[in-house]
Amino acid sequence: MKNIKVMHFVSGLGNDGVTQVIKNYTSRLNQHYNIDNIIVYQHQATRVKIKELQEIGDRLYEIPYKSDHPIANLRETYRIIKNEKPDIVHAHMSLLCFYPLSIAYLLGVKVRIAHAHIAQDNVNLHLATLFKKLNFIFANRYIACGEAAGKYMFANKNYDILYNAIDQEKFKFNMKNRKQIRRDLGISEDTILLGNIGRLTEQKNQIFLIKMFKSFQKKHNDSQLILIGEGELREKLELEKKKLCLQKKIRIINGTNHPEYYYSACDFFLLPSLYEGLPVSAIEAQASGVNTILSDSIDKSVNYNNASFVSIQHGVQPWINEINKNIKDKKRDCNFENIYNINTQYKKLYKLYINYLKN
After folding, report:
1. Rounded to whole angstroms, how far apart are CA atoms 213 and 168?
2. Does position 80 have pLDDT exceeding 70, yes or no?
3. Residue 161: is its pLDDT beyond 70?
4. Res. 297: pLDDT tops 70
5. Of 322, 324, 196, 312, nearest to 253 (Cα)?
6. In what order do the strands lie in the sheet with 4-9?
């Protein structure tokens, strides 16, 4: 069988969930099947991430960012698709999948996939409605990261679910990593360490975490909070911890290429997001066995290793109560026979591609 050429479109390439999902799947597809994976990205690409993707066999193109250069973006998209002649264009841009898919439609690409990675509006309602309609016009296959994202993006359309699977062995609890991170940060083994990994944005709601921690540490003085990530709210978060006199209790760490070290180091992983599709960080955290507490706005199907869900609508106290309830739980176990294990799930994506091309 001839090589299948798949062209993935993504907004940015960084330490975000969508990039990690693409890397997890393409690394296995490149290794086990006759697939040529091409990634087209627009902005926020880190050299480390580009190198990682190239090392696993992906080919990369950078095009102008659509928000700043919409015409140039479409022109370059047209040029690349026309020259490469992919069998499949797989857009990972949620509501904005129609942007590259419109060019794929114009050039007659047989399989045009809109992939939903969110489960709630991240633009105003009128634009969201319009963008969904445009996706229906230009896509002819639909994939979602979970049920909530699928229902949100595709309503009554037929869609397939492709879970945000990870290499769970990589995230398995490691005492050596735990001790190393705590030693590097000057944190004792007895200190209660709360953690959050994600972009520093309004969506991830780290301001809520800082306020919650202010109350929590009053009764748990030997506790600390680490926020790991990069984003536009970095300065605001720094000001908030200063305002609450928590400079010595809260650390904000630039994004890491080894999140697995930090999951092992933490006693609790907290994700109070305002909205999500299916957060990769929550899947990674559970693989490490760390106590995982999530906002109840997150799709419940992300739970596969006893994560708990708490409302953010009732303030910080329910979160403190949930931490206190589990504060003596030191178990770090995880059964890797589940739907988020990449070593079984990548085969599902290959089968989807084959079926799409046949029908």
Report:
1. 29
2. yes
3. yes
4. yes
5. 196
6. 59-62, 35-41, 4-9, 88-91, 111-116, 141-144, 160-161
Interval 239-277: pLDDT, tens: 999 999 999 999 999 988 899 999 999 999 999 999 888
Report residue 8: phi and psi, to 5°: -95, 135
The runs of H, that is alpha helices, within the chain are: 17-32, 47-55, 70-84, 98-106, 125-138, 147-154, 175-185, 206-219, 234-243, 259-265, 280-288, 317-325, 342-358
Judge residue 155's burial from the number of C-beta atoms within 10 Å of its C-beta, 0-12 exposed, 13-18 middle, 19 or more buried: exposed
Burial (Cβ within 10 Å: 0-12, 13-18, ≥19) of residue 93: buried
What confidence category does residue 302 fall into, taking pLDDT thresholds of 50, 70 and 90? very high
pLDDT band with cut points at 50, 70 and 90 for residue 120:
confident
Q: Which two tokens stand for residue 28?
A: 């296995």
pTM of this structure: 0.88
The mean pLDDT value for 103-113 works out to: 98
Q: What is the DSSP annotation of 162-182?
A: ----B-GGGGS--HHHHHHHH
Show Cβ contacts of residue 48 under 8 Å, excluding neighbours closer than 6 positions: 257
Any long-range contacts for 241-250 (C-beta under 8 Å, 24+ apart)?
A: 241/210, 244/210, 244/211, 244/214, 246/210, 246/213, 246/214, 246/217, 249/213, 249/217, 249/223, 249/224, 249/225, 250/210, 250/213, 250/224, 250/225, 250/226
CA 303/CA 251 separation, integer angstroms: 27
Sequence-distant (6+) residues with CB within 8 A of 39 are: 7, 8, 10, 13, 22, 26, 53, 58, 59, 60, 61
- The residue among 350, 346, 355 whose CA lies nearest residue 23 is 346
More confident residue, 329 or 132: 132
